[in-house]
């Protein structure tokens, strides 16, 4: 099979998601994979459907098509696959991303190949195997169907060399709009960059370590400086977003990077980095951040309840969070606080207190996510399968309640999440008015139409949850677990991919860095007995 032209697609979700929707912010993963493919001689275009219309003539003329897939984009991706199959059923379609890696059997309903976890080397190995006719069983990190079987090859070890500099020229229509036009639309380029992969912490709700490993791999500082300079020159923007799981996991590395930025005279106009509260223990790093223009820190605060924090395996306490917020604010850095709501310890009162505490201790941006887990039997996580409510993948963006909490009805949690968001930002808008903070006020007001659209979906979901929860809670809003069935509430059309009988035949052994045996699982309609080849 000859493969030369490749399209990589990052699909737009059918239900809008909040955040930097007005920013020109290409997703990091698809761009990285596309850049690696170009470096190895392939003709590549990356399509960001959320940002620009896609060139379907190019896509349908491709020799292979890759999708970056999140749970909230599954429906959209399925629609695109139908269009591709109708044009040419023989075009190989491969997929990567969190949803594909967590639920490969489900994804293989509409994809030919699933690249689990990191795709840097697996995608090259897959395309070479397709081109040469080599046995696909030799491609580590790959899942696929063959002769009626779903096959999960051994995991691929995580790579050491992550110094690839993405090629912005392969993004379709990236520089098609003038800076004046973008300014009039309230839009600007936000450069997404990665300095490290992995995290040394193992928070119980986090998919990151399952995808990138429990550990910490750092890029070379020379490579990072070269990429930052290239991005500024190519995009004309000094706005950056570091998407590391934990930007300060290795303080020495972070300190050296910031010192190098300062020595090179590089200063950001606006910059956000993802990190944890432990950054407050390194005030010299906070000072360096301020000097090079890192203006915002996105911190997974999760909860102000010590009980919930213990359940999350966060290794932080309420008092440590308060101390950290005070010290970080001392250096003028804005804090985007991320919170996970709806644990077995949460109530209506603790949910409201979360917003109160965020306001009291100077959190500038509040992001509330409902507790959510994938329905794989091998990794049940914090939500038992029989308490899951997966209405439709379109709603799987984290802002919709997807489970039955123990001490409040799901409709109550959804309603309180919506109220808390409104209460927080009305207070912040008033503060911006008082402080004449024109830039922040402009940004918040520009997002109001988006949040209005999202609110309609939230209100609709509340009505849906009110029907689901009937008869399952007592007069004190405590879940009556005896009334639950063995399974949760799932869309019938999606059940086959992660049916317990199928999942039970998939062997998962040892740490994710250790390759598992090659397991063959019967696909739908195949024989019921599984074959395992070691």
List key phrases describing it.
disordered C terminus, 534 residues, 18 helices, six-stranded parallel sheet, nine-stranded mixed sheet, alpha/beta
Give a short account of the largest sheet.
Answer: 9 strands, mixed
Kindly provide the radius of gyration, computed on alpha-carbon positions and rounded to a whole number of angstroms. Answer: 23 Å
Strand portion:
5-15%
Distance between the termini: 29 Å
Structural class: alpha/beta
Tell me the helix content.
25-40%
Q: Count of helical segments?
A: 18
**What is the number of beta strands?**
17
Question: Could you say which overall geometry the principal axes of the C-alpha atoms support?
Answer: globular
The chain-level mean pLDDT equals: 88
Spatial strand arrangement across the major sheet: 2-1-3-4-5-6-7-16-17
User: pLDDT under 50 segments (min length 5)?
Assistant: 504-534
Tell me what the structure shows:
By secondary structure, the chain is an alpha/beta fold. It is 36% helix and 15% strand. A hairpin with an 8-residue loop joins strand 16 and strand 17. The longest helix has 25 residues. It is globular, with a radius of gyration of 23 Å. The C terminus is likely disordered.
In short:
The protein is of the alpha/beta class and 534 residues long.
List the helices and strands and how they pair.
Elements: E1 5-10, H1 28-39, E2 43-48, H2 56-60, E3 64-68, H3 74-87, E4 93-96, H4 98-102, H5 104-107, E5 113-115, H6 122-132, E6 142-146, E7 149-152, H7 179-184, E8 191-193, E9 196-197, H8 208-212, E10 217-218, H9 221-235, E11 239-242, H10 251-263, E12 270-275, H11 283-292, E13 296-302, H12 306-311, H13 318-330, E14 334-341, H14 348-360, E15 365-370, H15 410-434, H16 438-446, H17 448-468, H18 500-503, E16 518-522, E17 531-533
Parallel strand pairs: 1-2, 1-3, 3-4, 4-5, 8-11, 11-12, 12-13, 13-14, 14-15
Antiparallel strand pairs: 5-6, 6-7, 7-16, 9-10, 16-17
Helix pairs in contact: 10-11, 14-15, 15-16, 15-17
